[in-house]
Give the backbone structure.
Amino acid sequence: MKIKDMEIFLDLLNTQSPTHTANNFSITQPNVSIVIKNLENKFDGILFERLGKKLLPTPKALELGKNWLKIIQAYYQSLEKLNDESMLLGEIKIASTQSISEHFLAPILFDFKAEFKNIEIRSQTQNSKECLNLLKNGNIEFAIIEAELDPALVEYENLEINFWQDDELIVATSDKKLNEKEFYIDELLEQKWILREVGSGLRDKFLNEIGASSKKLNIFLELDRIAAIKELVLQKKAISIFSKKSIEKELKNSTLYEIKLKNINLKRKFYTLKRKNYNFNRALEKFEKIFKS
């Protein structure tokens, strides 16, 4: 039995898509089908059943995957012991939301690349909803998001979600007068609000916190870039919601001012998301250790 065939099988358990698995290994979809057919002949049984575009693993496939995962992990662990960790090869495919990508993730990627020069990092920036879709479809292996997910959805999609860290949010403007007292949100509904696009965790958190008032909020403009929103708020005296870390410089220089809100919780949590029991990518394991340290 070839290690690569075992890895292709394990990857197909994760993606449930021959197309995605073929892309992950830079082979053709028929090659994936041949590997699976050979395994089914070897073990005298069906390993996957087709449901629409997805391949659902049979109980036999799940049991086989559980055992082979241990073998693959042991194989790479033995290689790691025989070789300098700095020479570890491979790639990691991750996605994160804009706030996380721009203000939290970059230093971690730098430190990781400095230690593991031969590992290729494929990182992309998407909103929380799209990060989830990319992970479900097997296009990435690891996501960092700013939205809470329904536990039932996490379980149904066979995902593993973990708390990473807290983030403080603030409402800000360039109009200094709005910094002079605390407001109820109802007093600010008619201001010109600029928010992120639908699907943004930042937007969802804020609108959920203000509850029924969100229906009356004057959403003057929606943009998909925090930098563009910040520039407009600086120039036009509009209002928006930001991660405090993203406007620390402007707050310090008094070009933006915090608007204090009464009875509104402006703290949120960041989460990591990956496939449950997806542990055979040694490069990703190393990244997670640095990410969590």
Remarks:
- The mean pLDDT is 91.
